[in-house]
Amino acid sequence: MLCLSGFAAEDKDFVPGEDSGFYYTIKKGDTLWDLSQKFYNSEWDWPGLWEMNQEIKNPHWIYPGKKIRIFLKENAALNPEVAKIEEVKQEQLPEKITPSFSFSEMDRIGFIKEKADPHLGSVIRDQDDKIMMSSNDIIYIKPSGKGTLIPGDLYHVFSTSPVKKKTKEGTFSGVKHIIHARIEILEHKTTYATAKVVKAYREIREGNLIMAYNKREPVLTVDESPSPVKAKILCSEDDNLVINDHRIAFIDIGRAHVRPGQIYSVMRRIDSDENSLWPKNAKDQVKFNPIKAGKLIVLHTEDVSSTVMILSSKYEINPDDTIN
Description:
Elements (H helix, E strand, L loop, with lengths): L6 E2 L12 E5 L6 H9 L5 H7 L14 E5 L28 E3 L8 E3 L7 E6 L11 E6 L10 E14 L2 E19 L4 E8 L8 E4 L6 E3 L9 E6 L11 E4 L11 E6 L22 E11 L4 E8 L8 E2 L1
Antiparallel strand pairs: 1-2, 2-3, 4-12, 5-9, 6-7, 6-11, 7-10, 8-9, 8-11, 9-10, 13-14, 13-18, 14-17, 15-16, 15-18, 16-17
Helix pairs in contact: 1-2
């Protein structure tokens, strides 16, 4: 097979059903963000590139000399070097490429609603009496009587917690829903049901709740220049004090103002009273413009809030930072 500078042919097969592809040897200074832009004409495709190469444990750390797999999408704008590869048979590139963002675990992201969703049941215990349950475990569920647990159907295990935040407009109040696992109902008895944990995203405990499984579209069309909004970061899924790159968080506006795929800047306010050398008298304090701390993408919207992912950060990002 043909081997060009920076590209290496290997015997390992590509995943069936995918378009043709090749292997790329990582060079010094490469990032998944840059490689996504280089090969797919969209920097927002880096999560899909990371997913294709499961040996990369941390997307921040890719090492020169290692080979990664690059799949060629039908709508990808190919690098001129790539077009030289014999397997690539493209007479003409698309005139316009629509940037997209892919995230395979879109189904497992949490959300905030004004009130808690009704649940269909609660976890009673694990078949093997484990305190913390995980993938492939068999669990027992007590139905709530507010719906039916149908054998063969998929459901989500979730938990809730209240969210209250003071804003300039008043107090934001809602209920955070965190997805713990995807399960399949095996049997429904008179007083209980059994289920298999198909995939656990976080530990499952006695008392966790059951809701219907809602499959979400894993690929979003990116809008890098949406209309400005006034919004604030409420918290992260795990209530982190500092919200790092690729973490899931929530903002205090919903579907009436934003939609999935929109990209916004995260702004960090600088308060003059953080420095004891500056005047404490309000009239003498210097007012600074907010600085751009990073970027986020909207993943999912509800009525009162939206779920977002931090794409990149130049400075630490905290709850109460604003977006625009």
